Amino acid sequence: MDRATWESELQRDGFELKESGMAAGTHNPDHTHPFDARLYVLSGEITITQNGKPHTYGPGDNCEVLANENHAEEVGAVDVTYLAGRRSA
């Protein structure tokens, strides 16, 4: 999915959008958020582990983490930059 389509879907689904990122080597162990989140990776890579299954996302990839879903985040050897969408649960 391209960025414009992703952003359009975010707006349609009631998400707030901002650009964000994490530093290389960042590791956020299992945690939850009180909101639905969607990410669209612009540069770098991030591995998100959900339900014990890790998946690495790179430029052009997107993913979703539902509110209160247990997950972990790990950034590779370079910083990751992404568009983040948040929606109150």
In CATH, the architecture is Sandwich
Instruction: Report helical residue fraction.
Output: 10-25%
Per DSSP, what share of the residues sits in E-state strands of 2 or more residues? Answer: over 45%
> What strand line-up does the widest sheet have?
1-8-3-6
Q: Report how far apart the termini are.
A: 24 Å
Q: What best-fitting shape do the alpha-carbon axes yield? A: globular
Q: So what's the oligomer here?
A: single chain
The total tally of domains equals 1
Number of helical regions: 1
How many extended strands? 8
Which structural class do the helices and strands define?
Answer: mainly beta
Which residue ranges are poorly predicted, with pLDDT under 50 across at least 5 consecutive positions? none
Helix and strand pattern: HEEEEEEEE
Largest sheet: 4 strands, antiparallel
CATH superfamily: Jelly Rolls
CATH class, named Mainly Beta
Task: Classify the fold: give the CATH topology.
Answer: Jelly Rolls
Can you describe this structure in just a few lines?
The chain is mainly β and about 90 residues long.
